[in-house]
Structures are given as structure tokens and as C-alpha cells.
Amino acid sequence: MNESTAPQWHRPGRFEALGPAFFTYLQPTPVPAPHWVATSASTSQLMGLNPEWLQTDEALQTLSGNAVSVPSPDGRKPLASVYSGHQFGVWAGQLGDGRAIMLGETSLGFEVQLKGAGRTPYSRGGDGRAVLRSSIREFLCSEAMAALGIPTTRALALTGSPLSVARETLETAAIVTRVAESFVRFGHFEHFAARDMQEELKALADLIIDQHYPECRTATALQGNAYANFLQAVSERTARLLAQWQAVGFCHGVMNTDNMSILGLTIDYGPFQFLDAFDPGHVCNHSDNQGRYAFNRQPQVAYWNLYCLGQALLPLIDSEELTIAALDSYKTVFPAAYATQMLSKLGLPEDAAGTAPADGRFALLVNPLLQILADNKVDYTIFFTRLTEAVQQAQEGNIDFEPLRDIILDRATFDAWSLTYSEQLAQVDQAQAADLMQKSNPCFVLRNHLGETVIRAAQGGDFAPVQQMLAVLHAPYDSHPAYADWAGFPPDWATTIEISCSS
Ligand SMILES: Nc1ncnc2c1ncn2[C@@H]1O[C@H](COP(=O)(O)OP(=O)(O)OP(=O)(O)O)[C@@H](O)[C@H]1O
């Protein structure tokens, strides 16, 4: 194999350069008889890898955690990082990468982690492993989110092993190779703040600002305070992320502060779910007895989590007033971003007269529509794809709403809404509206039953469906006639799928 086709590691990586207070060097624990489950050509391309490398045995061994010679021939020095966090609203103390091991940072600046690669000093009684079922979900969903245009960690590869892993039943092990420009979470900052380790707190903030938020150094807002500007920038990225989650109907399920990315990425695909029938109070995590992370609470929870980050950054900002002001931006950015997303789903571009939600069309159309979808338990994704088709096929402004009426019980209320909608739509360019809707309303999202279907095939030894589903989810706005079933209503058994935190 030509060595240049393998990832080129940059040593020390930027995170590694922070020093030993932030991590522990360690090697992944090898697994028996590793095999490929799936790979992502898209992530490989993003990382500038030669796609042929992913076909090699060297890649299989490396990405299963089996290439553990010390020192590694390619100069890697894997590590697990320490962080803390609030879980379900309660301070949980020290956590850390309990089953994720960072192989290193590539020369193009991507950190590469193996999730499920064995125990670390932060495993706290866990086995350091992940099972095939949850790993398929993480692999597919992180790639699906990227294709939907939603910021996320990426997945490069998924490998499996016959190694038994005990969960509710005995399952087999798998390892997701995931990739991000940084895996730093709110919890990393909370960790050093809680221990009053101000030097480390500052070093971490400086690293992230310099690498990912350099504009905060020169910003004049918030009295030119770089750390306050940093907090504001993170608040705004998080607000935009949440707007995208809510608009696509994505329920994360475990929005603990250790699962909040400092780059505003979606991270940690555990009990997540895309809504089937629209239910604003939906709780996708069966371990979340209080419904803390219900779908409609997510924006509020993100704000709560940002407060924890603000608290952690307070010693650096050195002003309560500036900290509160920085966090306040969330309150304007989230509603505006959400309204823009929702109006786009309806084919209505931002109004020059004023951006949403000041835009009266939000109150006029979006709130009543969501009420109709909730009252009638209408499938969220299918409603918007049918509406898109209806607008695309409209003749001289006449929209045939029958395919939508078909899935709504209370037709009188819907008819009134569709009348108002038609009037608003008539005020914008029809072709532009149809185009906007096409780009805003995916036909394919990773619904629970779709994940379950490919998981069952993979558990029976057939991995081809994982790769096929990845191909469809990589182009979610296309119609893929051969896979029309995957864009259809969920089967009855979908409601019996229980996804908990045990993965
Ligand atoms: N099987 C396991 N073995 C060891 N540690 C674990 C295991 N499962 C979870 N943890 C640790 O418990 C904490 C909370 O777990 P959580 O489910 O939020 O994360 P995760 O899914 O393991 O990983 P990540 O957030 O990195 O995607 C983390 O510190 C995580 O590393």
C-alpha cells in the first residue's frame, strides 16, 4: 500500500498541545476479527483522503483500534479527553471520553475519534464499547444531518466485530470513526471552571477562539471583550443549530451539557428521533422520565446549557453584565432563524420588510399549521413533501390540496389555513417558491423504523442495506424512486421501537 494514501497526522495536534491536564494518552483496545460495516466516501473526500485507503486492511485495522503498536508507525499518539457536565439538569462532576479515543488530528485539521474503542480512565464502570445497533444509528444519522445541511460531527467509517457486548441482551461490538474540526464540548469548559483551574480554562478558550472564532479577538461589541464575544458567537451558532433541528423535526434526546459542541455541531447520536406524526411534546429517550428533553423543550434547554457555559466562562469574561448580554443574543437569533427555516418550508423567502419572526407571516401561517399538524397527528415530513409537490404542480397559482387533505381529519380547519396560505404564496414568485421548498423539505430522514430495518439486516450479517441507506440519506432532497418505501409512512411496529441511553 502506498503510505501517502493513509491519513497524514499532525503532531502534536492542537488539542494535544494543550497538555496533560486535558487528556490521557492511551491506546485503543483491539477487537477480534474486525470487519467493515460501511464507509462514507463523502467524509473521506472532505478529509482529503484517498478513497482507496478505506479499502485497505491497514484502514480496517486502524479504524477498529487494532493498529496499536507503540509508538505508532505513522506517529499517532491516541488520547481520551476529560470533561465534566450537567446531566438531566444536575451537576454530574467529572465525565470524559469513556469510550471515545482520539486517534489524532490530520494535517488538514480534522480530529479523528474511534467511538467504542475500549475503556479509558473516564469509563466510570462502563465497558468502553458501543454496540452495532447504536453505531449504525450514529453512523447514518451524522451523515444524514450533514446532507441536510445541519452542522454535525461526521462519520468516516463503521467497523464491527463478533466481540460480545452486554446490554439488555448480548449484542456485538462496533466502532464508529467520527470526525470533527473539534470535539470540545461545553463540558470541557465546565470541567476546568468547576475546579478553579483558570490557566487551563483560559488556554482552552484561547485555543478555540484562535482556531474557530478568530473574529472575537477584534470584535468591538460587548466592550471588545473577546471571551464575551466568544460566548455570544457560540450562543448564536447554537441558536441556528436548534432552529434547524426544530424545523426538520429532529429530537436529540440527551441534551446534557457534555453533549453540546462548542462549534455548534450536533454531537452524540444516542436515542435521537426524527418525528413521525407531529407531536410537539414528543420524548424520544425512554430513560427521560421527566420529559426534560421533549422536542418542544429543546430550544429552552439549549439556552439553559448556554447559561452553564456562561457560568464557566465568567472568570474569563470577568463581568456578569457582559455574560448575560452575550447569552441574550440567543433570544433573538433562535426565533429569527427558526421562523426563516419554517417560512422556507412553506416556500416563502425572507421578507425585505423585516426578517422573521417580526414577519407577520409566521404568526399567520406557521403557528396555526403546527397546531393543525399536532391536533391531527399528521406525519411531519410527509406533510411538507406533499405540500412541496402540490406547489410544484400548481397550475396558474391553483394548488391541489387534496393529497394533503387526505392525511388530515379536521379538513375544515385545514381548508381555512390553505386559503390563507394560497393568498400569501400568490405574492411571491411561484417557481422560486417551489425551488425553495424543494431545498427545504427532505423526502428522506432517518426515521426510527428505517434505522431499525437496516440494523436488523446488519445483525443478520447483511451490511449492504446500511450502505444503500447512506447513499439515499446523502441526497435527502432527491426522490430516489427505487427507495420510495423509505419516504413513506412508518409501519405500525415503528411505535414499539424503544431507544434508551444504553448503547
Ligand atoms: N459503554 C460505555 N463505556 C464507558 N463509558 C461510557 C459508556 N457509555 C457512555 N459512557 C460515558 O458516559 C458519559 C455519558 O455518555 P453519553 O451517552 O452522553 O455519551 P456517549 O454516547 O458515550 O459518547 P459521546 O457523547 O462521545 O458521543 C460519557 O462520559 C461517556 O463517555
From TrEMBL:
It catalyses: L-threonyl-[protein] + ATP = 3-O-(5'-adenylyl)-L-threonyl-[protein] + diphosphate; L-seryl-[protein] + ATP = 3-O-(5'-adenylyl)-L-seryl-[protein] + diphosphate; L-tyrosyl-[protein] + ATP = O-(5'-adenylyl)-L-tyrosyl-[protein] + diphosphate; L-seryl-[protein] + UTP = O-(5'-uridylyl)-L-seryl-[protein] + diphosphate. The keyword ATP-binding applies. Nucleotidyltransferase involved in the post-translational modification of proteins. It can catalyze the addition of adenosine monophosphate (AMP) or uridine monophosphate (UMP) to a protein, resulting in modifications known as AMPylation and UMPylation. The active site is at 258 (proton acceptor). Its cofactor is Mg(2+); Mn(2+). This is Protein nucleotidyltransferase YdiU. The keyword ATP-binding applies. It is an enzyme of class 2 (transferase). Mg(2+) binds at residues 259, 268. One of its GO terms (molecular function) is ATP binding. It comes from Comamonas suwonensis. Pfam families: SelO. Keywords: ATP-binding, Magnesium, Manganese, Metal-binding, Nucleotide-binding, Nucleotidyltransferase, Transferase. Its EC number is 2.7.7.-, 2.7.7.108. ATP binds at residues 96, 98-99, 115, 127-128, 178, 185, 268. Belongs to the SELO family.
